[in-house]
Design goal:
With 240 residues, the chain is of the alpha/beta class. The chain has a domain of 145 residues: Rossmann fold (3-Layer(aba) Sandwich), CATH 3.40.50.300. The protein has ten helices and nine strands. It has a six-stranded mixed β-sheet, with helices on both faces. Strands 2-1-4 form a three-stranded antiparallel β-sheet, covered by helices on one side. Strand 8 and strand 9 form a beta hairpin. Helix 4 crosses helix 6. The relative contact order is 0.18. Bound molecules: adenosine-5'-triphosphate (ATP).
Amino acid sequence: MITIQNLTKRYGDVLAVDDISFTVSPGNVCGFLGPNGAGKSTTMRCLVGLAEPTSGTATVLDHRYHDLTSPAAQVGTMLDASALHPGRTGLEILTQGAIVLGLPRTRVREVLDLVGLTAKESKRRVAKYSLGMRQRLGIAHALLGSPSVLVLDEPANGLDPAGIRWMRGLLRDFVSRGGTVLLSSHLLHEVQQIADELVMIGQGRIVAHGTLAELLASGDDLEEMFITRTASTSREGALS
Ligand SMILES: Nc1ncnc2c1ncn2[C@@H]1O[C@H](COP(=O)(O)OP(=O)(O)OP(=O)(O)O)[C@@H](O)[C@H]1O
Protein backbone atom coordinates (compact mmCIF):
# COMPACT_ATOMS: atom_id res chain seq x y z
CA MET A 1 0.00 0.00 0.00
CA ILE A 2 1.22 3.47 -0.92
CA THR A 3 -0.44 6.48 0.68
CA ILE A 4 0.25 10.05 -0.33
CA GLN A 5 -1.66 12.43 1.93
CA ASN A 6 -1.76 16.20 1.33
CA LEU A 7 1.86 16.04 0.24
CA THR A 8 3.54 19.37 -0.45
CA LYS A 9 7.20 19.88 -1.27
CA ARG A 10 8.86 23.24 -1.79
CA TYR A 11 12.38 23.91 -2.95
CA GLY A 12 12.83 27.56 -2.03
CA ASP A 13 10.45 29.46 -4.29
CA VAL A 14 9.62 26.37 -6.35
CA LEU A 15 6.45 24.56 -5.37
CA ALA A 16 7.39 21.16 -6.77
CA VAL A 17 4.44 19.23 -5.26
CA ASP A 18 1.31 21.04 -4.21
CA ASP A 19 -1.03 19.26 -1.78
CA ILE A 20 -1.54 15.96 -3.57
CA SER A 21 -3.28 12.88 -2.19
CA PHE A 22 -3.74 9.41 -3.64
CA THR A 23 -3.34 5.78 -2.65
CA VAL A 24 -2.19 2.70 -4.50
CA SER A 25 -3.53 -0.60 -3.17
CA PRO A 26 -1.89 -4.03 -3.38
CA GLY A 27 -2.61 -5.74 -6.68
CA ASN A 28 -2.37 -2.52 -8.68
CA VAL A 29 0.05 -0.84 -11.02
CA CYS A 30 -0.44 2.90 -10.77
CA GLY A 31 0.93 4.99 -13.61
CA PHE A 32 2.09 8.40 -12.40
CA LEU A 33 1.98 10.74 -15.35
CA GLY A 34 2.94 14.32 -15.90
CA PRO A 35 5.01 16.51 -18.18
CA ASN A 36 8.63 17.37 -17.41
CA GLY A 37 8.93 19.16 -14.11
CA ALA A 38 5.41 18.21 -12.96
CA GLY A 39 6.62 16.84 -9.63
CA LYS A 40 6.64 13.06 -10.22
CA SER A 41 10.21 12.41 -9.13
CA THR A 42 9.87 14.71 -6.15
CA THR A 43 6.80 12.79 -4.97
CA MET A 44 8.66 9.50 -5.35
CA ARG A 45 11.70 10.87 -3.56
CA CYS A 46 9.48 11.90 -0.64
CA LEU A 47 7.96 8.42 -0.66
CA VAL A 48 11.30 6.65 -0.37
CA GLY A 49 12.87 9.03 2.13
CA LEU A 50 15.18 10.88 -0.23
CA ALA A 51 13.36 14.18 0.23
CA GLU A 52 11.59 15.53 3.28
CA PRO A 53 8.00 16.69 2.68
CA THR A 54 7.37 20.35 3.45
CA SER A 55 3.98 19.23 4.73
CA GLY A 56 1.76 16.19 4.43
CA THR A 57 2.91 12.59 4.40
CA ALA A 58 4.05 9.90 1.99
CA THR A 59 3.99 6.40 3.43
CA VAL A 60 4.56 2.92 2.15
CA LEU A 61 3.21 -0.19 3.87
CA ASP A 62 1.66 2.21 6.42
CA HIS A 63 5.03 3.59 7.50
CA ARG A 64 7.35 6.35 6.53
CA TYR A 65 10.14 4.73 4.52
CA HIS A 66 12.76 5.25 7.21
CA ASP A 67 10.50 3.67 9.82
CA LEU A 68 10.16 0.38 7.93
CA THR A 69 12.00 -2.52 9.53
CA SER A 70 13.94 -3.33 6.36
CA PRO A 71 13.17 -0.61 3.82
CA ALA A 72 15.64 -1.73 1.15
CA ALA A 73 14.10 -5.20 1.10
CA GLN A 74 10.47 -4.18 1.56
CA VAL A 75 10.45 -1.47 -1.12
CA GLY A 76 12.20 -1.93 -4.45
CA THR A 77 13.20 1.36 -6.02
CA MET A 78 14.54 2.45 -9.36
CA LEU A 79 14.75 6.20 -9.36
CA ASP A 80 17.52 6.77 -11.85
CA ALA A 81 18.74 3.96 -14.09
CA SER A 82 21.66 6.17 -15.14
CA ALA A 83 22.87 6.13 -11.52
CA LEU A 84 24.17 2.57 -11.97
CA HIS A 85 27.95 2.73 -11.93
CA PRO A 86 29.06 2.55 -15.57
CA GLY A 87 32.42 1.02 -14.71
CA ARG A 88 30.92 -2.00 -12.92
CA THR A 89 29.35 -5.04 -14.44
CA GLY A 90 25.70 -5.81 -13.87
CA LEU A 91 26.76 -8.88 -11.95
CA GLU A 92 28.99 -6.83 -9.64
CA ILE A 93 26.22 -4.32 -8.96
CA LEU A 94 23.69 -7.03 -8.13
CA THR A 95 26.15 -9.06 -6.08
CA GLN A 96 27.01 -5.99 -4.03
CA GLY A 97 23.30 -5.33 -3.53
CA ALA A 98 22.74 -8.93 -2.43
CA ILE A 99 25.59 -8.72 0.09
CA VAL A 100 24.20 -5.47 1.55
CA LEU A 101 20.79 -7.09 1.96
CA GLY A 102 22.29 -10.29 3.39
CA LEU A 103 20.95 -12.39 0.52
CA PRO A 104 22.51 -15.53 -0.95
CA ARG A 105 24.39 -15.13 -4.26
CA THR A 106 21.81 -17.43 -5.85
CA ARG A 107 19.33 -14.55 -5.63
CA VAL A 108 21.44 -12.63 -8.16
CA ARG A 109 20.97 -15.38 -10.75
CA GLU A 110 17.25 -15.44 -9.99
CA VAL A 111 16.72 -11.72 -10.60
CA LEU A 112 18.87 -11.81 -13.73
CA ASP A 113 16.59 -14.56 -15.04
CA LEU A 114 13.52 -12.54 -14.04
CA VAL A 115 14.59 -9.54 -16.11
CA GLY A 116 15.98 -11.56 -19.00
CA LEU A 117 19.64 -10.61 -18.75
CA THR A 118 21.95 -13.47 -19.69
CA ALA A 119 25.00 -14.54 -17.67
CA LYS A 120 27.19 -13.20 -20.47
CA GLU A 121 25.42 -9.82 -20.49
CA SER A 122 25.68 -9.59 -16.72
CA LYS A 123 29.47 -9.75 -17.00
CA ARG A 124 29.64 -6.71 -19.27
CA ARG A 125 30.27 -3.25 -17.87
CA VAL A 126 27.17 -1.09 -17.53
CA ALA A 127 28.76 1.56 -19.78
CA LYS A 128 28.34 -0.92 -22.63
CA TYR A 129 24.67 -1.62 -21.88
CA SER A 130 21.87 -0.32 -24.07
CA LEU A 131 19.28 1.86 -22.34
CA GLY A 132 16.86 -1.09 -22.28
CA MET A 133 19.48 -3.32 -20.64
CA ARG A 134 20.10 -0.64 -18.01
CA GLN A 135 16.40 -0.49 -17.26
CA ARG A 136 16.33 -4.27 -16.88
CA LEU A 137 19.34 -4.18 -14.57
CA GLY A 138 17.73 -1.39 -12.53
CA ILE A 139 14.59 -3.47 -12.14
CA ALA A 140 16.64 -6.55 -11.22
CA HIS A 141 18.28 -4.45 -8.51
CA ALA A 142 14.86 -3.26 -7.28
CA LEU A 143 13.62 -6.87 -7.11
CA LEU A 144 16.63 -8.26 -5.21
CA GLY A 145 15.12 -8.19 -1.74
CA SER A 146 11.77 -9.66 -2.88
CA PRO A 147 9.92 -6.44 -2.03
CA SER A 148 6.14 -6.14 -1.97
CA VAL A 149 6.21 -2.57 -3.29
CA LEU A 150 8.01 -1.21 -6.33
CA VAL A 151 8.61 2.51 -6.92
CA LEU A 152 9.95 3.00 -10.42
CA ASP A 153 10.79 6.36 -11.98
CA GLU A 154 10.43 6.20 -15.75
CA PRO A 155 11.16 2.47 -16.05
CA ALA A 156 9.75 2.27 -19.57
CA ASN A 157 12.10 4.96 -20.83
CA GLY A 158 14.06 3.58 -23.75
CA LEU A 159 12.28 0.25 -23.93
CA ASP A 160 11.24 -0.97 -27.36
CA PRO A 161 7.75 -2.45 -27.90
CA ALA A 162 8.96 -5.92 -26.94
CA GLY A 163 10.56 -4.43 -23.83
CA ILE A 164 7.30 -2.70 -22.88
CA ARG A 165 5.46 -5.99 -23.29
CA TRP A 166 8.06 -7.75 -21.18
CA MET A 167 7.75 -5.14 -18.43
CA ARG A 168 3.99 -5.40 -18.50
CA GLY A 169 4.25 -9.18 -17.98
CA LEU A 170 6.76 -8.78 -15.17
CA LEU A 171 4.70 -6.16 -13.34
CA ARG A 172 1.43 -8.04 -13.89
CA ASP A 173 3.01 -11.10 -12.33
CA PHE A 174 4.31 -8.95 -9.46
CA VAL A 175 0.91 -7.43 -8.65
CA SER A 176 -0.93 -10.73 -9.16
CA ARG A 177 1.01 -11.95 -6.12
CA GLY A 178 -0.17 -8.98 -4.05
CA GLY A 179 2.50 -6.46 -4.99
CA THR A 180 1.96 -2.71 -5.33
CA VAL A 181 3.60 -0.65 -8.08
CA LEU A 182 3.95 3.09 -8.59
CA LEU A 183 5.65 3.94 -11.86
CA SER A 184 6.17 7.36 -13.38
CA SER A 185 6.39 8.42 -16.96
CA HIS A 186 5.72 11.34 -19.21
CA LEU A 187 4.83 8.89 -21.97
CA LEU A 188 1.11 8.18 -21.88
CA HIS A 189 1.05 5.39 -24.43
CA GLU A 190 3.72 3.37 -22.65
CA VAL A 191 2.02 3.69 -19.30
CA GLN A 192 -1.39 2.94 -20.73
CA GLN A 193 -0.11 -0.48 -21.73
CA ILE A 194 1.14 -1.27 -18.25
CA ALA A 195 -1.02 0.48 -15.63
CA ASP A 196 -4.37 -0.37 -13.98
CA GLU A 197 -4.87 3.15 -12.73
CA LEU A 198 -3.47 6.57 -13.48
CA VAL A 199 -2.61 9.67 -11.51
CA MET A 200 -1.89 12.65 -13.76
CA ILE A 201 -0.15 15.69 -12.33
CA GLY A 202 0.71 19.06 -13.78
CA GLN A 203 2.73 21.73 -11.98
CA GLY A 204 2.61 19.75 -8.77
CA ARG A 205 -1.17 19.22 -8.66
CA ILE A 206 -3.35 16.25 -9.53
CA VAL A 207 -5.35 16.95 -12.67
CA ALA A 208 -6.88 13.51 -13.22
CA HIS A 209 -7.04 10.30 -11.23
CA GLY A 210 -8.84 7.02 -11.72
CA THR A 211 -8.63 3.52 -13.06
CA LEU A 212 -7.75 3.22 -16.71
CA ALA A 213 -11.27 1.90 -17.30
CA GLU A 214 -12.85 4.90 -15.52
CA LEU A 215 -10.75 7.42 -17.36
CA LEU A 216 -11.44 5.77 -20.71
CA ALA A 217 -15.17 5.44 -19.91
CA SER A 218 -15.45 9.21 -19.63
CA GLY A 219 -15.18 9.13 -23.41
CA ASP A 220 -12.21 11.48 -23.39
CA ASP A 221 -9.15 10.70 -25.36
CA LEU A 222 -6.49 10.18 -22.69
CA GLU A 223 -3.82 11.97 -24.64
CA GLU A 224 -6.09 14.95 -25.16
CA MET A 225 -6.98 14.91 -21.46
CA PHE A 226 -3.33 14.76 -20.51
CA ILE A 227 -2.27 17.62 -22.76
CA THR A 228 -5.24 19.87 -21.98
CA ARG A 229 -5.24 19.35 -18.24
CA THR A 230 -1.53 19.49 -17.66
CA ALA A 231 -1.19 22.55 -19.89
CA SER A 232 -4.01 24.41 -18.16
CA THR A 233 -2.97 23.60 -14.61
CA SER A 234 -1.90 26.54 -12.55
CA ARG A 235 -0.90 26.81 -8.94
CA GLU A 236 -3.89 29.09 -8.32
CA GLY A 237 -6.59 26.83 -9.67
CA ALA A 238 -6.07 23.26 -10.73
CA LEU A 239 -8.60 21.01 -12.36
CA SER A 240 -9.48 18.17 -10.07
N1 LIG B 1 16.56 19.45 -5.57
C1 LIG B 1 15.82 20.39 -6.16
N2 LIG B 1 16.07 21.70 -5.94
C2 LIG B 1 15.33 22.66 -6.51
N3 LIG B 1 14.27 22.40 -7.34
C3 LIG B 1 13.99 21.13 -7.60
C4 LIG B 1 14.74 20.05 -7.04
N4 LIG B 1 14.20 18.87 -7.48
C5 LIG B 1 13.19 19.22 -8.28
N5 LIG B 1 13.05 20.56 -8.35
C6 LIG B 1 12.03 21.29 -9.11
O1 LIG B 1 10.78 20.76 -8.74
C7 LIG B 1 9.93 20.70 -9.88
C8 LIG B 1 9.45 19.26 -10.06
O2 LIG B 1 10.56 18.46 -10.48
P1 LIG B 1 10.47 16.87 -10.62
O3 LIG B 1 11.86 16.40 -10.95
O4 LIG B 1 9.81 16.32 -9.44
O5 LIG B 1 9.53 16.71 -11.89
P2 LIG B 1 9.23 15.43 -12.79
O6 LIG B 1 7.76 15.41 -12.99
O7 LIG B 1 9.86 14.24 -12.22
O8 LIG B 1 9.94 15.83 -14.16
P3 LIG B 1 10.66 14.93 -15.31
O9 LIG B 1 9.58 14.23 -16.08
O10 LIG B 1 11.35 15.98 -16.13
O11 LIG B 1 11.61 14.00 -14.63
C9 LIG B 1 10.70 21.26 -11.05
O12 LIG B 1 10.38 22.62 -11.18
C10 LIG B 1 12.14 21.09 -10.61
O13 LIG B 1 12.98 22.05 -11.21
